[in-house]
Amino acid sequence: MAGNILVWIVWIGAAFACLASGIAVVSFSNPFYSALALIGNLGSLAVLYLLLSAEFVAAAQVLVYAGAVMVMFIFVIAYLGGRADAPWAGGPSWQTVGAIGAAAAICVEVIVVSGLKAGGRLSHEEHISGSFGSPANVGRLFLTDHLLAFEVTSIVLLVAAVGGVILGEHSSGAAEEEASLSR
């Protein structure tokens, strides 16, 4: 009984951390802080994966997304410059309102599902095999059922990195031209 309560406490904590960091991602005007909040979001998702007994998926979440991909995002943001160079800096306030509205809707959903589970209406438990989340299962799914999505994601990340370098060259070239004109 005490172990079940602890699982619920960790789940609720991770769920609210996921919501809070998701709100922070879309509400920060500084892209660097948004990227750091996204790292927190990915970490809280890894905790939720651990609660689902998907240890490999949780480790991959932390290593691949929170580690490698977010480091790439941070480097691109640092390469492009600060807030003045960000195309979304000083964006409309409707984005903040939309983010808060979406977070509120997700919060209501979490509360409803928690209430249904506590009331016993979600008592049907699905059998999970012992190989759920194992490297062999994840690899098989990536390389069979989800191969196209896996490859498209890698191409999108490559294009994002190349685009960041091109934008960085363009913005530094414009800054040098502006500096030479002011002399």
Number of helices: 6
**Secondary-structure element pattern, one letter each:** HHHHHH
Give the low-pLDDT segments.
none
Quote the average pLDDT: 78
Strand portion, in percent? under 5%
**Largest beta-sheet characterization:** none
The helix-and-strand class reads mainly alpha
Describe the structure.
This protein is mainly α. It has helices spanning 2-27, 31-51, 55-80, 94-118, 135-143, 147-182. Helix content is 78%, strand content 0%. The chain is globular. The model has no long low-confidence stretch (mean pLDDT 78). The protein is built from 6 helices and no strands.
What's the gist of this structure?
The protein is mostly helical. The chain has helices at residues 2-27, 31-51, 55-80, 94-118, 135-143, 147-182.
Secondary-structure blueprint of this entry?
Elements: H1 2-27, H2 31-51, H3 55-80, H4 94-118, H5 135-143, H6 147-182
Helix pairs in contact: 1-2, 1-4, 2-3, 3-6
